């Protein structure tokens, strides 16, 4: 399956086939790994889960409760902006493609850690996204940030097709721990 579109369909169907109970249990395990690993950080950027992605909302709530800085992406044209979030219930609005995005001012500094969603990842950290290239363009500007792919274990494969413009994540976390 070298074709990115076919791979995307395969992994999206597999991810969306998870029951709510399976998704909740797997997401809870992944969030627990992240909570243990992110203790020393104060500034993270995450994502709002869509289409069966790992549900990191409990991590975001915990992060804010701890008084740490949380950032979420907001689509502007072909790029992602970084927006600081103070309250997940009042700071969100339907944005690009109906995906919840953060209201507020765009910040110019980058967070210490960026949690990156994906349709699939390979063992080298390359990701297969939805095909618009938002994260690759964004990550190309974040050389000093720690990047973590967030996925269910079945979304991590030995190798995915990638191009010179694709930016790999440094680590991947799934329900059974860390990869890379």
UniProtKB/TrEMBL annotation:
Gene Ontology biological process: folic acid-containing compound biosynthetic process; tetrahydrofolate interconversion
Keywords: ATP-binding, Ligase, Magnesium, Metal-binding, Nucleotide-binding
Transmembrane segments: none
Needed cofactors: Mg(2+)
EC number: 6.3.3.2
Residues engaged in binding substrate: 53
Catalytic activity reported: (6S)-5-formyl-5,6,7,8-tetrahydrofolate + ATP = (6R)-5,10-methenyltetrahydrofolate + ADP + phosphate
Enzyme class name: ligase
Amino-acid positions noted as binding ATP in the UniProt annotation, renumbered to this chain: 4-8, 127-135
UniProt KW RNA-binding keyword: no
A Pfam family hit: 5-FTHF_cyc-lig
Annotated InterPro entries: FTHF_cligase, FTHF_cligase-like_sf, NagB/RpiA_transferase-like
One Gene Ontology MF term: ATP binding
Keyword Translocase included in the entry's annotation: no
Family: Belongs to the 5-formyltetrahydrofolate cyclo-ligase family.
PANTHER family for this protein: 5-FORMYLTETRAHYDROFOLATE CYCLO-LIGASE, ATPASE INHIBITOR/5-FORMYLTETRAHYDROFOLATE CYCLO-LIGASE
NCBIfam families: MTHFS_bact
Name of this chain's protein: 5-formyltetrahydrofolate cyclo-ligase
């Amino acid at each position: 399956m070298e074709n990115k579109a076919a791979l995307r369909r395969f992994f999206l169907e597999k991810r969306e086939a998870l029951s709510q109970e399976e998704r909740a249990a797997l997401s809870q395990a992944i969030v627990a790994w992240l909570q243990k690993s992110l203790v020393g950080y104060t500034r993270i950027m995450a994502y709002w889960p869509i289409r069966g992605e790992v549900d990191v909302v409990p991590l975001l709530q915990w992060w804010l409760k701890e008084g740490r800085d949380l950032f979420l992406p907001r689509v502007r044209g072909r790029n992602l902006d970084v927006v600081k979030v103070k309250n997940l219930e009042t700071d969100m609005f339907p944005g690009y493609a109906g995906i919840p995005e953060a209201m507020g001012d765009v910040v110019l500094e980058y967070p210490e850690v960026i949690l990156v969603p994906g349709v699939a990842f390979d063992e080298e950290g390359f990701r297969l996204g939805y095909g618009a290239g938002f994260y690759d363009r964004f990550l190309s500007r974040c050389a000093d940030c720690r990047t973590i792919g967030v996925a269910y274990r079945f979304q991590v494969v030995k190798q995915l097709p990638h191009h010179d413009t694709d930016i790999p994540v440094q680590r991947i976390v799934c329900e059974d721990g860390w990869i890379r």
